[in-house]
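Progress report, Aim 2. The chain analyzed during this reporting quarter is listed below.
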Amino acid sequence: MGNMKKFITLAIAGLLLFSLEGAWAQREVKPPAVLPILEGQRPLAQPETRKPAAPKQTQEGKAKAKTTANGKTKAKAGKKGQKKAAVKKETGTKTFKIAKEKSQKDQKEKPPEAAPEHEKMIWIDQLKQVGAAYEDGKKVMEFPVLTGDDETTTDPGTYLVRVKQEDYYSQKYQTPMPYSIFFNYEERAAIHGGEVPPSQKKIGLATHGCVHVEQPYIERLYDWTEADRTLVVIMNRRTQN
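Predicted structure tokens for the chain:
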């Protein structure tokens, strides 16, 4: 009788256990939408998003791009070359100008030296329209002059004074030539007394080939000059004034 009760109790317990297991199996289990990230754990890597590939350049496109690049390079090089040429030209112009100014300054300060037997020299610069007298290389006087122009020239050169005449009168031009110092007697070309207008009024005025010197310079120059011992050096040609 006791064994029968134990058997019935075990049977009922087994049935209850079987019923509970079936109910648990039938229950729907849903995983959480987002798994929690535990401390020290890295999040899962996100899937990589790829950018769309650029279209391949055709041979024609490559050639066109290369041509454009070469054109820009040549244009840049051309501008650089023009700039260098401009700088070089400007530098050359400045150098020439400085050399010219230095040459003119040297001519003014250092006139051509006379031969030892000619201690005296009259120096005429037609470009500056100025004259000066030197004795033993030292300047003794300076004076303004008026010379010929491109139509009636005063020819540059080195001359020796052979004739002086205080009251010469030109038959050819019917005009007096006081205190004439002839540097070319055959042509009757002389340094003599005559009008020398200011620089502003010189334009359009010229001699027939002689050199005009005003008072009191011409009289002093005439007395100072010695025939056969004084050179006349005429420099440049008159281009303006």
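The longest helix spans residues 59-109. The first strand starts at residue 120 and ends at 125. These observations will guide the mutagenesis work planned for the next reporting period.
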